[in-house]
TrEMBL record:
Residues 120-422 form the DUF5716 domain. SUPFAM superfamilies: TPR-like. The lineage of its organism: Bacteria, Bacillati, Bacillota, Clostridia, Lachnospirales. Gene3D superfamilies: 3.30.420.40. Pfam families: DUF5716_C (PF18980). It comes from Coprococcus catus GD/7. It comes from the Bacteria. This is DUF5716 domain-containing protein.
Length: 713
C-alpha cells in the first residue's frame, strides 16, 4: 500500500512548537496533536536508564520525576554557539533539532497510518544562515532532502497565511497583533495591486509602551482593554485594513468569546473589518507554503518584498517544449538563506552562461556573464552542466557549475567553474545573444542505466536516449520499447506519464515512427527539424522490402561488433539477392552487401574470405570505391601476382593503381610507428620472456583498449 505523503507546516519556537498538515478534504490546513496538545513544549529529555530521548510533555514529566536530564534552548542563538550542554556533554544543536523533529513528526501517524512527509516548511521567528544550516542538517538526518524542505521566517508564514484566504479578506491591508509575555507587537501587511501578482510588504511595530507582557501575570481587564484600544488607533491611522488577526497567550480565549477585550474589539471590527483569533497562524501559513511547493511546485500568488528576501528573479534563458522559457535559479520573494537550487542544463555551442536578474516590480534587467574557460570539446548538445545556486546574503549570489559530461557517451571531466556577484551591482542587460538559450535537462532520481543491447551503450537520462535514437535511427526497432525501458523511464527518470503514454501507444499498435515522435516531442532536447528528419527516416524504413531490412540489421550488427550475427544475416541476404530477389535488387545494393560482408571477415582476420567478398563487390560495380578495398586485401595476403593480373585485366591506369598502393604503404608505415603498435610489440616481447605477471597485465590492458573500439564514441 502506498504511503500518504502529507504537506506539512512546522512552527519551531523556543518555548512551544506546532505542527499542521494540509487537509485535502477541507482544502485547508489542520493542526496535529502531539500527546493530546496542539502546542508542543520545545524541550527534550534524555533518560538516565537507557539514554532514550523524549520530547514535549513527556520530556517535562520525565525530568520532573527525576528520570532524565531536561534540554532547552537548542534552537536559539545557533550562530553564537552551535553546541548545548547536556549533563556535562557538549552536543550539537543541529543534532538535537533533528531528534526533536523526528520525535514530534511521529504525530503525523495519528492523521493517517503510515503517513510520511511529502514536503515540509519549517518556520521560525527569525532565520539566519547558521539556523538554516542546522535545520537542513537536521532534516537530512531524517531522510528529508533539500527538495522536500523550505525554511522561512514567521513574517513570511504570516504572509502565506493571510494571502491564502478568501480574496475579500485581503482586498486592502492586513494586520496581525501578537501579544505574549514579551509584550505587544503589530505586523502590518501592505498589499499593492499596481503589479501582477500583487506585491506585499511587511513591517513590524513594537507596542510595549501600551502592553509589555508583565500585566498578564496579574491582569486588569479594563486597563488592558483601554491600552490596547490606544495601540489599535496608533497603527490603524490613515490605513485601509480588511482583516485583523490576533494570536498569542494574551489573546487566549478570544476565539471563544471569553476575553478581556471590549472597546478594543469594537474598534477592531469597525468599518466591517474581519477579525480572527487563534494560536496556530504561523504553522498554518507554513503549511500553505508546503502545499504550493510540494503539490504543484508553483509560485505563490503574491510577491513578498521584505527584508531578508530576494528582490530579483535569477534565471537563464532556456527552451522548454520548443518555446522560449525562463529557467529560474532563484525566485524573487524567496528567503536568501533557503534560496538553494540544483539545475541541470545542456548547452549547444555556448562558451559562456549569461545569468539574468530581473526586478519583478520594475522589470529592470541586469546580467552577469560566466565564462566557461577550457570547456571540453564535444559535439553539439552533448555537454550537460550542473548549476548550483546559493546565497551568502540578500545580494551575494554564488553560482557553481560542474561538467557532467553526457553519461558514458561523453565522460564527465568534473571540471568546476565558480562565480560570486552582487545582484544589485550587475551590468544592465542587453539584447539576447545568438547562443544564449540553454536546454533544461532532467536529473534522474537514481543512477541506473538502460542498456542498449545492440551497441552495448548504457543510457542514464532521457536526453541521452534521444541523442542515441537520433544517431541510430536504422537500429531503432519496435522491440526497443519494452517493459525494461518503461520501468527505467518510470522509476529511474521519474517520467511516469511519459512511460505510461509510450506503453499505451505500443499497446494500441501505433507505428514505430509515432512512438518515437511521442518520445522526442516529450523531451526538451531535439528541435522540430531534427525530430522531423528522424520521423521521415522511419517512414522510409517502413517501405523497405524484407531484404533491405535484413541487410540493414546485418550492417548494424557489423557496426557494433556482433560479427557472427552480422555474417549470418549477410549470408541470408546474399542467397536471396542471387535467387528470389535477383531482379529486384540493384547492382549497387549487391556490391555494397559483398563489401560489407568482406569487412566483417577482415575484422575476424579471415583475409581469404574477405578477398573473395571484395572481388565479388568489384566485379559488380567497377569503381575505385570497390577497387581500393580489393587491392588492400590482396596486399594483406601478399598476393602481388593477383594485383598485377587485376591491373592488367581491368586496364587500370598506372596513376590510379599507384595512388591506391601508396595509400596502403602510408597506412602501413603509420601503423608500424604508432604508439599502439609499440605497446603491442613490447607486450609480445614480455610474452616471449619469463615475466608472466607483466604479460597478463599487458593482455588485460590491450583487451580494455580494444573494447573501446565498440563504444558509440
Amino acid at each position: 500500500m502506498e504511503r500518504q505523503r502529507l504537506m506539512v507546516g512546522y512552527d519551531l519556537c523556543a518555548d512551544y512548537s506546532q505542527i499542521s498538515y494540509y487537509n485535502t478534504e477541507k482544502e485547508e490546513p489542520d493542526s496535529v496533536n502531539f500527546d493530546g496538545q496542539n502546542e508542543i513544549p520545545t524541550v527534550l529529555c534524555r533518560l538516565f536508564s537507557n539514554g532514550e530521548w523524549l520530547a514535549g510533555q513527556q520530556a517535562l514529566k520525565a525530568a520532573e520525576a527525576g528520570n532524565g536530564v531536561l534540554v532547552r534552548d537548542f534552537i536559539v542563538r545557533i550562530a553564537d554557539d552551535p553546541m548545548v550542554d547536556v549533563a556535562g556533554e557538549r552536543m550539537e544543536k543541529a543534532g538535537l533539532i533533528g531528534i526533536f523533529l523526528q520525535k514530534t513528526l511521529k504525530a503525523l501517524e495519528t492523521v493517517c497510518e503510515g503517513a510520511e512527509v511529502g514536503f515540509i516548511t519549517i518556520t521560525m521567528e527569525d532565520v539566519d544562515l547558521a539556523a538554516a544550516d542546522a535545520l537542513k542538517r537536521a532534516a537530512a538526518s531524517m531522510g528529508i532532502g533539500a527538495q522536500l524542505l523550505a525554511l522561512e521566517s514567521h513574517r513570511l508564514s504570516y504572509e502565506y497565511y493571510a494571502l491564502s484566504q478568501r480574496r475579500e479578506l485581503w482586498t486592502h491591508d492586513v494586520g496581525l497583533f501578537e501579544y505574549d509575555r514579551r509584550g505587544l507587537r503589530y505586523h502590518h501587511l501592505s498589499v499593492s495591486w499596481k503589479h501582477h501578482p500583487p506585491v506585499v510588504t511587511a513591517e513590524t511595530t513594537v507596542l510595549n509602551q501600551y502592553l509589555d507582557g508583565h500585566e498578564l501575570a496579574d491582569p486588569v481587564p479594563p486597563e488592558m482593554d483601554r491600552q490596547f484600544l490606544e495601540a489599535i488607533k496608533e497603527v490603524s491611522a490613515r490605513r485601509m485594513i480588511s482583516t485583523y488577526y490576533l494570536m498569542g497567550e494574551g489573546f487566549s480565549g478570544a476565539e471563544s468569546g471569553k476575553s478581556w477585550m471590549n472597546l478594543s474589539l469594537k474598534q477592531l471590527c469597525a468599518m466591517k473589518r474581519h477579525v480572527f483569533a487563534g494560536q496556530n497562524l504561523y504553522a498554518r501559513g507554513a503549511c500553505y507554503h508546503s502545499f504550493d511547493q510540494g503539490s504543484f511546485g508553483r509560485k505563490p500568488g503574491f510577491i513578498a518584498a521584505n527584508a531578508g528576501l530576494l528582490t530579483k528573479d535569477i534565471y537563464l534563458r532556456s527552451v522548454h517544449k520548443h518555446a522560449p522559457q525562463k529557467l529560474i535559479l532563484a525566485a524573487a520573494g524567496a528567503p536568501w538563506y533557503s534560496a538553494v537550487s540544483r539545475k541541470a542544463i545542456i548547452i549547444d555551442g555556448q562558451e559562456q552562461l549569461i545569468i539574468r536578474m530581473r526586478d519583478p516590480l520594475t522589470n529592470f534587467e541586469q546580467t552577469a556573464v560566466m565564462t566557461l574557460d577550457a570547456l571540453p570539446q564535444r559535439p553539439p548538445k552533448t555537454t550537460k552542466l550542473l548549476i548550483e545556486t546559493s546565497f551568502r546574503s540578500e545580494t551575494d549570489c554564488h553560482i557553481r557549475v560542474t561538467d557532467m559530461g553526457f553519461g558514458e557517451i561523453f565522460a564527465a571531466t568534473g571540471k568546476v567553474w565558480e562565480m560570486h556577484f552582487d545582484i544589485g551591482e550587475a551590468s544592465e542587460a542587453s539584447g539576447q545573444s545568438a547562443k544564449e538559450a540553454v536546454i533544461e535537462a532532467t536529473i534522474p532520481q537514481e543512477v541506473f542505466p538502460l542498456d542498449m543491447k545492440m551497441s552495448g551503450t548504457r543510457i542514464f537520462s532521457l536526453e541521452e536516449l534521444c541523442w542515441y535514437l537520433s544517431k541510430n535511427v536504422y537500429i531503432t526497432t519496435y522491440d526497443l520499447f519494452d517493459e525494461k525501458m518503461f520501468f527505467w523511464m518510470d522509476k529511474i527518470t521519474g517520467s511516469h506519464s511519459l512511460a505510461l503514454a509510450l506503453f499505451n501507444y505500443k499497446s494500441a499498435g501505433k507505428p514505430l515512427k509515432e512512438i518515437v515522435r511521442l518520445l522526442l516531442n516529450a523531451v526538451d532536447y531535439l528541435d522540430n527539424g531534427e525530430i522531423a528528419r528522424i520521423y521521415n527516416k522511419l517512414t522510409e524504413m517502413e517501405h523497405q522490402n524484407p531484404l533491405e531490412q535484413m541487410r540493414l540489421a546485418a550492417d548494424n550488427y557489423n557496426r557494433y561488433g556482433h560479427y557472427m550475427a552480422a555474417l549470418k544475416n549477410y549470408h541470408h541476404v546474399v542467397y536471396q539477392m542471387t535467387h528470389d530477389y535477383d531482379s529486384e535488387m540493384t547492382r549497387q545494393f549487391k556490391a555494397d552487401t559483398w563489401h560489407n560482408m568482406g569487412m566483417v571477415f577482415l575484422r575476424l582476420h579471415n583475409i581469404k574470405c574477405a578477398a573473395e567478398c571484395m572481388k565479388r563487390a568489384f566485379e559488380l560495380v567497377k569503381t575505385q570505391d570497390f577497387l581500393a578495398p580489393y587491392m588492400y586485401v590482396l596486399e594483406l595476403l601478399g598476393d602481388h601476382e593477383k594485383i598485377l593480373t587485376l591491373i592488367r585485366q581491368e586496364d587500370i591506369p598506372t596513376d590510379i593503381s599507384d595512388a591506391i598502393l601508396n595509400r596502403y604503404k602510408e597506412a602501413e608505415h603509420l601503423c608500424e610507428h604508432s604508439e599502439e603498435n609499440r605497446k603491442i610489440q613490447d607486450g609480445l616481447t614480455l610474452g616471449n620472456g619469463q615475466t608472466t605477471a607483466k604479460y597478463w597485465d599487458f593482455v588485460r590492458d590491450y583487451l580494455d583498449r580494444q573494447k573501446k573500439n565498440y563504444d558509440l564514441t
